[in-house]
Amino acid sequence: MMRNFSWVVVNSGQRRRQAAALLCVLLSLLTSAACASIRDRYVYHAVGSPYEITEDIFVDRSGEMIIEPGVEMRFAPGVGIHVKGILKAQGTSEKQIMLTALNPPENNEKDSDRGVAVHRESSVEWPPLRLVDGQTILTGRLQLLYHDRWWSVCSSSKNWTGNDANVACRQLGFSDGALSGWVRRHNDSRQFMYSSPECSGLEASLDQCPGWNDRQLGSGVCEYHTDVEITCSPILQSQAHHHWRGIEFNGALAVEIKEHHGLSKRLVSSSALEHVVLSYGGRHRDGSAVAAVQVFGVPPVMHSVEVSWSSYHGINVTKHDYPFEIKDSLFVENRGYGIFINSTTGQVSLSGVVSRDNGADGVVYAYHESVTQNRLSLCESVSDNVAYPRGFFYTLDENNAKADCTRTLRSTDPSLIVTIHFKNMMRDDGPRSLAGGTVTVWDGDGTTTDTTDGTTTDTTKQLAHFVISNTTRPQSVSSRRDSLTVQFRPPDIPHYLKGSSDYYP
């Protein structure tokens, strides 16, 4: 028997908070209650499963939510779990944890009114159109699936209207859209001329619009014409109204781990998802599309996780600054990307991961430039015993334009090497600019010699040498031993700048 109850823990004093948390635990054991706010340790026991969750669960910074193996939780539409503290959902191979919608839609239900097509080698049905070359699946060039091939849609008269874009976006599963503009295609030989759909805005798919009969296909039909670009609203159509929110980790608790005798450090999440099956997530309360697992900050430990049937991405990780790993997991039949990594720094390891039959790409990694915080000056005299990763910077101006700058980056563990990444290089190319210069990277400390058999041999090896330019960014460089030396040399002073009080007071 499944029972439903909601309880809110109010933080109004330590003693009252503990009493409320205890009462919430007791109610959970008796009635399968859902605590709307968790500020202490709270356990969803297998004995009370399945749980019907009708209110959002908020795990506060001081809270810890534990889901026992074998638990099944069924969430009302738009309801989800929001984690700032700790969430531990650790099942086993025999007793998986099931997180799903309260009333999930029937799989593979044919809906002829939406104009869907069966995705080959998959049980899920995707609309026969897509948006490509955009930052997300919500915007980009329009392509149609016609006779089992993708065709780029162009227009000779640029007569597409807002009604046409609305129909296309609704067919994609979103509420409405807009015409973004006209773009040139690149290396796309399959062309589909659909000059003027003339949709009224009430059609369920583009092939129901009056202009469909005037379509043209074939190489060359779009040779002198641009492609249609559309942007859709993230608000979902009614077919996703059964979906629940999913799990959001927003700055959730993590611990700092020091490795290699304190030489390097990283943050590891205190949360874990292991042997968890999460299905039919991806719908916010306001009806907008979100990832079934949304992470801002350090991702949870993820092992043997299955994410399927999300109305948007399977997982979206944003702003993680340290390496993390997803192991032995499956991301399948999600409407958007299976795995979307949207970050500036931090590495991702996918081990034994399968991402297939999703509505968009299986894995997308979007890298963004940023300036590393807590940086050290490349030329400032500080201890070489620093923890990595570590950012360095150097700014050339009139006060230091005459000086070379050299730093050796050293590992205290002889079994480790050092790698340097060049993240951001800018130069001012004005007529009186002092910008520019060269960077040289050496293996070792730059002065190492080897005395063997009475002879002295310089064993230092130059690994890289380049001129600073705005148009290129050097490739990363790794040492072959436990240290690496970086030297910056400013440019020669132009003759017409020598003695200039503007730069050399």
Automatic annotation (TrEMBL):
Membrane protein topology class: Single-pass membrane protein
A single BP term in Gene Ontology: cell-cell junction maintenance
Domain SRCR: 129-233
Stated name of the protein: Lysyl oxidase-like protein
Organism: Ornithodoros moubata
Disulfide bond entries: 199-209
Keyword terms of this UniProt record: Disulfide bond, Glycoprotein, Membrane, Repeat, Signal, Transmembrane, Transmembrane helix
A single cellular component GO annotation: membrane
Alphabetical list of Pfam families matching this protein: SRCR
Main localization of the protein described in the UniProt heading: membrane
Residues of the signal peptide: 1-35
